[in-house]
Amino acid sequence: MKKTLIGSMLLIWLMAPLFAFAGVPLDTVKANANSVLEVLRDPKLKGEAGRKVKEQKIQAAAEKLFDFVELSKRTLGLSWNNFTPEQRKEFVQLFEGILKDAYVDKILAYSNEQINFTKEVPLSETTVEVDSVVVTKGAQVPINYRVIKKDNEWRVYDVVIEGVSLINNYRTQFREILGNNPPEKLLETLRKKTGAK
Amino acid sequence: MRSVVRNVSLSLVILWFFALSFSVVHGQEAVLDEAALPAQGPVMLLAQGLTPVPAGPAPAKPSDEYGNVTAEEAEATTGKGAQIADPIEPWNRAMYHFNDKLYFWVLKPVTRGYKAAVPEDFRGLFSNFYKNLESPIRIVNNMLQGKPGYAGKELVRLVINSTIGVGGLRDCAGECFGIKGRNADFGQTLGKYGVGFGFYLVWPVLGPSSPRDTVGFVGDWLLRPATYLSSNFFDPVSMGLYVHESVNTTSFHLGDYEALKGAAIDPYVAIRDAYVQHRTEVLKR
């Protein structure tokens, strides 16, 4: 009886790190978001030069936080398999560029918004949803990050804003192109989009 | 105008139109959705284990991060994609372009001027004020959705905010007493009753909608106190309030639409999908 008690206590003690581990996905996203906010609020970074530095720092934070390969795979779904390895690499590169270009400006416009991280929802064995709310004086926008664990690191593969999943949104757009065309056509469209800037 | 705002911010767009033949239209929706998925062809083939078009070298090993996607993996992410039929796409695209111009030529410049002139704190008070005025919509629809608890909370919020909150300018119920309400609208209520979208329908000025959400919009409009300012359905004061509310809301969301549009490959499809995803998610709340 006593043995079982000690045994179970030992087991609980051994499992303690596992429980503590449950907060890692949220902390990862939170730490990255906070580092971006710090950059945005840095009073030393002003004017055109400051903006450039901010841009670079945000891009670096995005690269650390996002798993663009996973994001691309999940966006394309099974269509991914129709791409050759070279086409896959190019697709990831182009897609990453488009997302960064579009959202860096938006993030730069942030100033006194407050981000509250609310909870973690497990989605599968390796994926977790980290929920947050961006609070301004006139609105509260729920933004959820879906993260996946790879090599002991949690990285974002989808962002869900007001119930709208980024990767689902792009899948719908890509499907219209990939439906009747080979992968090359999609790459061409993406190249044109990045080149047009 | 307000709906352009809401669509812009990925917030609600609520507009609704025609109650009859919902179940019929809903039934058709499923069929049309199938047709609207051209990618299903190749996807199906792959799911049956046929090799992908072997252009170039053989696909990398599964352990490689650029390796193939398995059917289960794809199912896990693509399985729950919300869809909508779009039989009147030419009309919708034309209206999308109209609303896009309306935003860039009218709403955005007006909002920028407004934002520059009115401090953020004041704009915050206005947005509380309008939210408070729309309490009847939330009370009635929470009741209709079988959530009398939330309907009660919304009623308490209305009473507290209208009095202690000085006519709804402050959200005292939330800030002083921690009473949180629940958003609810008539389109959502209809959806919870099993009414489908019908199809995608873009209104000029009001933006993305569907027959169901158009009926919902009209229902909600009838619950707005401003509607009863005069006996005319289109009263200038009521309209003025509506325009101000739209501009005030947009002042907190400038740049959202630009980001979405800038990031999109086909902005029309991106917004249609955002509308469907958002309105589908709202039903789960």
In one word, what is the shape of chain B? globular
Cα end-to-end separation of chain A: 72 Å
Q: Biggest β-sheet of chain B, characterized?
A: 2 strands, antiparallel
Q: Regarding quaternary structure, how should these chains be classified?
A: heterodimer
Please give the order of strands in the largest beta sheet of chain B: 1-2
Distance, first to last CA of chain B? 26 Å
Q: Report the strand count of chain B.
A: 2
Instruction: Compute the number of helices of chain B.
Output: 14
Give the total of domains of chain A. 1
Low-confidence stretches of chain B: 1-62
Strand content of chain B: under 5%
Helix count of chain A equals 7
Number of strand elements of chain A: 5
- Under the CATH scheme, which architecture of chain A would be assigned? Roll
CATH superfamily of chain A: Tgt2/MlaC
Mean pLDDT of chain B: 79
CATH topology name of chain A, in short, is Nuclear Transport Factor 2, Chain: A
> What gross morphology of chain A would you assign?
globular
Structure in words:
Chain A has a 5-stranded antiparallel β-sheet with strand order 1-2-3-4-5. Chain A has a single domain, classed as Nuclear Transport Factor 2, Chain: A, CATH 3.10.450. Chain A has 197 residues and is α+β, with helices and mostly antiparallel strands. Chain A has 7 helices and 5 strands; from the N terminus they run αααααβββββαα. Chain A starts with a helix and ends with a helix. Chain B has 285 residues and is an all-alpha fold. Chain B has 14 helices and 2 strands, in the order H-H-H-H-H-H-H-H-H-H-E-E-H-H-H-H. In chain B, strands 1-2 form a two-stranded antiparallel ribbon. The two termini of chain B are 26 Å apart. The N terminus of chain B is likely disordered. Classes of the chains: A alpha+beta (197), B mainly alpha (285).
